[in-house]
Amino acid sequence: MSIDGGDGTSTDGVDWDARAASFDEEPDHGLRDPQVRAAWAGRLRTWLPERAGDVLDLGCGTGSLSLLAAEQGHRVTGVDRSPAMVTLAREKLAGRDAVFLVGDAAAPPVGERRYDAVLVRHVLWTLPEPGRALRHWRGLLRPGGRLVLVEGVWGTVSPVGIPADLLTALLAPIAGQMRVERLSPDGALWGRDVDDERYAVVAVPD
Predict the structure, then answer these.
(1) What's the predicted TM-score (pTM) here?
(2) 63 DSSP 8-state letter
(3) pLDDT digits (tens, 9 = 90+) for 78-100
(4) Is 16 helix (H, G, I), strand (E, B) or coil?
């Protein structure tokens, strides 16, 4: 989930190129544990369209969710600001129906292409203008397409993130149908029990 700073850095100064090699060591990043992987695969199956389609994975990191989507039959385009992350994603999905591009998640370099789903995990909260990004992502959808947004508020001392009520308010003007799934209680997704706010929103615009 490397975002927006240019040259592999994020808006908060994190050098995601430098962190790429160790990024997958986090259970919910690399999905190396079979239980964690199965938990994310199960959720993704309910969030993405049932029929094989085109999925745009923004802030794709090393491509772990892209790989799950590809394994479920979808054609994947991944975008990440970090060239090192993109290189690892290409290696991870070698031989799959997947393309990875270096670019800004808020304005991905996909031209006139349109998608059946735009998948974004732990990215929106980092963007300076999340409402504008959501409107742009809506424009990348085919009719009947959906936004799949996985977000949260992490930490208790100095929490960072975007609360679910704020995200749903930002989506309200553009989303005809919307559902929120609380993810915090499902420790299998994170490789441990968590007590902060983690959730997913699946929105189908009008």
Answers:
(1) 0.91
(2) S
(3) 999 999 999 999 999 999 999 99
(4) helix
